[in-house]
Write a structure and sequence with these properties.
Oligomer: single chain
Strand order of the largest sheet: 12-13-15-14-16-17-18-19
Distance between the termini: 71 Å
CATH architecture of the largest domain: 3-Layer(aba) Sandwich
Strand content: 25-35%
Number of helices: 7
Order of helices and strands: HEEEEEEEEEEEEEEHHEHEHEEHEH
Structural class: alpha+beta
CATH superfamily of the largest domain: Alpha/Beta hydrolase fold, catalytic domain
Number of strands: 19
């Protein structure tokens, strides 16, 4: 009994020790290297092999400096001021692999980090940092034939202006003047623009690598700005109106692309996909215009139900994806319901990612080989 009493007395202490061990973050390995997105010659920000990020900001007159990281970036990181007036700090824990937006808060003001490149996201040009992913080879810049991403301006009577799009044409497009290609219309998310899929998403590199590995037949990708002057969010995404953009896309951009590029201008060879808000646009437009697109893909952008698709015969593929830190069960269940109703439906869940670009890079990598094929 005395031994039992002694063990019982030790239990609270053991629990505290175990709890502390479970919640204490791992020791930070000092193998930091400059982020691959840094400005030329800039050492900071840095990342280490565990996924921690370290920042350095020169602001000798400041009273407080904080790094505000985007989704998947572990929240904010307060920096500490040194005797030399330089502020430094390391994230409290590892960040998700892949790309993250962030900015610097200095005494309440918002600034970009002068050490890194800028990317349009969160409705402004933000700083960017890349945490190397274990599977990064599929979007890496490899020594393979490369396609081109070119800017085009197309007339838009609906918005009374010329609008911009970026068009990816695969390797060899310029050499064979007779070959025609299917087209994927690929939309960005809220707060981003038509540069996002190339700059943050590496869509062109993903395509180049898939083509070089003979995993897909080449196709064209078109990326355009998904907002118009007439569009306002108002009460949030539920009140979002897609009508004007639908007209821009279907009645203005697609005819322009078909007239100026060697496309197979048929519904059977046309796909639409989008991430987040772009997925919501894809959902609405594909349902409204079943004679325009045959392949539908929502990347962290919701789901379809069998009841809302009017003509099953016109749909060749429904692709649904998200990160494992989002709502994967909803994606899987929706795909199962669609499959049960006779649709060619595929779901994909990106492991250990949230609402962020590694989720969408991986999604495009999984989607591309499924496009422009029959069941």
């Amino acid at each position: 009994m005395k031994l039992y009493s002694k063990l019982a007395a030790l239990i609270p202490t053991l629990i505290c020790v175990l709890s502390y061990a479970q919640t204490t973050p791992p020791s930070v390995i000092e193998d930091f290297k400059p982020s691959e997105l840094n400005q030329p010659g800039q050492e900071y920000p840095m990342v280490n092999s565990q996924g921690y990020a370290r920042f350095r900001i020169v602001a000798p007159a400041a009273d407080s400096v904080k790094v505000s990281l985007g989704l998947g970036g572990r929240g904010g990181t307060r920096l500490t001021k040194g005797a030399d007036g330089v502020w430094t700090g390391t994230t409290e824990g590892p960040m998700d692999e892949g790309f993250h937006y962030y900015h610097i808060n200095i005494d309440g003001g918002t600034f970009n980090d002068p050490g890194t490149l800028n990317y349009y996201g969160s409705t402004r040009w933000e700083s960017g940092i890349e945490i190397p992913a274990h599977d990064k080879d599929f979007y890496a810049l490899r020594n393979v034939p490369h396609g081109n991403v070119q800017q085009v301006l197309f007339p838009s009577p609906t918005t009374n202006t010329s609008r911009r799009a970026f068009v990816y044409t695969p390797p060899g497009y310029e050499k064979d003047s007779k070959k025609k290609y299917p087209v994927l219309y690929l939309q960005h998310g809220w707060g981003e623009d038509e540069t996002a899929w190339s700059n943050q998403g590496h869509a062109n590199l993903i395509m180049d690598n898939l083509i070089a590995d003979k995993k897909i037949e080449p196709f064209i990708i078109v990326m355009t700005y998904g907002m118009t002057n007439q569009m306002r969010f108002g009460g949030g995404l539920r009140s979002f109106k897609v009508d004007t953009f639908q007209t821009v896309l279907v009645d203005e951009l697609i005819p322009f692309i078909d007239a100026n590029f060697r496309t197979i201008g048929k519904q059977s060879h046309r796909a639409m996909a989008g991430l987040s808000m772009g997925g919501m646009e894809t959902h609405s437009i594909t349902l409204n215009k079943p004679d325009v697109f045959a392949y539908y893909a929502l990347l962290s952008g919701g789901t379809y139900t069998p009841e809302e698709i009017k003509d099953k015969s016109k749909v060749k593929l429904v692709f649904l994806s998200c990160g494992s830190k989002e709502r994967p069960d909803g994606i899987k269940n929706a795909a199962t319901a669609l499959t049960g109703a006779g649709y060619n439906a595929v779901s994909f869940v990106s492991d250990n990612t949230a609402h962020e670009f590694l989720t969408w890079r991986r999604s495009l990598y999984q989607l591309a080989p499924l496009l422009f094929k029959d069941k």
